[in-house]
């Protein structure tokens, strides 16, 4: 997949209201889920106990943490866009974030992103990205929202 290459506010602003791209799929394996549980100290059985989840969960298997799904955003975003001529990028916030569907262990997710809004704040580009994390072969989205980034171009 070809990445969108952006080097300035004006180049970015040209995509206002448009789809910026779609990432490749990445699988959320049980190993990745377990590592996230270890990193966050969230070992709830629905995420890490495969036998109990198979018996007791409505999903029939373990599911990824919602925040694991969210944490994949930077990796997937970097597959869509290559921002050049940059001093620094800062995560500024999340709005209207909604977990719509659990991601089962072994399912693959990808990111679709649109440029929702853009502002020039005294030389700093504030970009609001409307995003959806989709689950392969599933009609419901795992996660939707608006991510706001501050880009400091040189």
From TrEMBL:
<feature type="domain" description="MaoC-like">
    <location>
        <begin position="13"/>
        <end position="124"/>
    </location>
</feature>
<protein>
    <submittedName>
        <fullName>MaoC family dehydratase</fullName>
    </submittedName>
</protein>
<dbReference type="InterPro" id="IPR029069">
    <property type="entry name" value="HotDog_dom_sf"/>
</dbReference>
<dbReference type="InterPro" id="IPR039375">
    <property type="entry name" value="NodN-like"/>
</dbReference>
<dbReference type="Pfam" id="PF01575">
    <property type="entry name" value="MaoC_dehydratas"/>
</dbReference>
<dbReference type="InterPro" id="IPR002539">
    <property type="entry name" value="MaoC-like_dom"/>
</dbReference>
């Amino acid at each position: 997949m070809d990445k969108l290459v952006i080097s300035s506010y004006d180049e970015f602003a040209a995509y206002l209201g448009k789809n910026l791209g779609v990432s490749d799929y990445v699988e959320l394996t049980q190993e990745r889920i377990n590592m996230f549980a270890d990193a966050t100290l969230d070992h709830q059985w629905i995420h890490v106990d495969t036998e109990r989840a198979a018996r007791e969960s409505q999903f029939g298997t373990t599911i990824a943490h919602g925040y694991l799904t969210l944490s994949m955003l930077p990796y997937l975003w970097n597959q869509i866009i290559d921002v050049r001529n940059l001093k620094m990028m800062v995560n500024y916030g999340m709005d209207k974030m909604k977990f719509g569907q659990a991601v089962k262990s072994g399912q693959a997710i990808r990111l679709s992103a649109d440029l929702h809004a853009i502002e020039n704040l005294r030389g700093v580009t504030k970009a609001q990205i409307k995003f959806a994390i989709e689950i392969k072969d599933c009609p419901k989205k795992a996660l939707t929202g608006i991510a706001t980034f501050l880009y400091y171009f040189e």
